[in-house]
Amino acid sequence: MFDIALRADGPRVRVWTGAQRLFPRGLATFLRHRDRWCRTPWCNAPIRHHDHALAAADGGTTSAEVGQGLCEACNYAKQASGWRHQPRPGPGNHTIDITTPTGHRHRSTAPPLLGPRHPAYQQVAPDRWMLIA
Ligand SMILES: [Zn+2]
Q1: Secondary structure tally for the chain: helices H, strands E
Q2: Rounded distance, CA 111 to CA 26, Å?
Q3: % of the chain surpassing 70 pLDDT
Q4: Which of 132, 126, 90, 128 is CA-nearest to residue 114?
Q5: Which of 12, 65, 67, 82 is 20 to 30 Å apart from 28, CA to CA?
Q6: What does the pLDDT read at residue 33?
Q7: What is the pTM assigned to this prediction?
């Protein structure tokens, strides 16, 4: 993967391996545009932290697949015992499976690329609606 920084003296391209902990500026910008709002279901606060859904200590890389945008409160709460965020690989919009300390499971899916700019509901089944950011 690579990061492109546009500068007055010309573009700079930097290659990274995913082993570093901080999200490079280009990747952080991508996460903010992809996720738009905090990825915790029903939060919808502005993104303030670029987070490893799967902690680096557990093998998470600094990548678009593992990264997610969270608000500060959700990022700090996620560090408490019992929370688990697991990126779900596969086609379609970026998805994170979330398990709470009480064992409840939720799925957070990034909004459609050209979807609504504000939180809205999307019908996922005849009798089910999902809040999308
Ligand atoms: Zn949040």
Answers
A1: 2, 9
A2: 19
A3: 79
A4: 132
A5: 82
A6: 93
A7: 0.71
Contact (Cβ atoms closer than 8 angstroms) between residue 37 and residue 47: yes
**20 CA from centroid of ligand 1 (Å):** 24
pLDDT of residue 46: 95
Q: Are strands 84-88 and 95-99 parallel, antiparallel or unpaired?
A: antiparallel
Q: Enumerate the β-bridge partners of residue 2.
A: 15
Region of 34 on the Ramachandran plot (φ > 0 left; ψ -120 to 50 alpha; else beta): alpha
pLDDT, one tens digit per residue, over 30-55 is 999 999 999 999 999 999 999 999 99
49/63 Cα distance (integer angstroms): 14
> Distance from the CA of 14 to the center of ligand 1, in angstroms?
31
Q: Would you report the helix, strand and coil content of the chain in percent, each value rounded to 5?
A: 15, 30, 55
Quote the ligand 1 centre to 69 CA distance (angstroms): 9
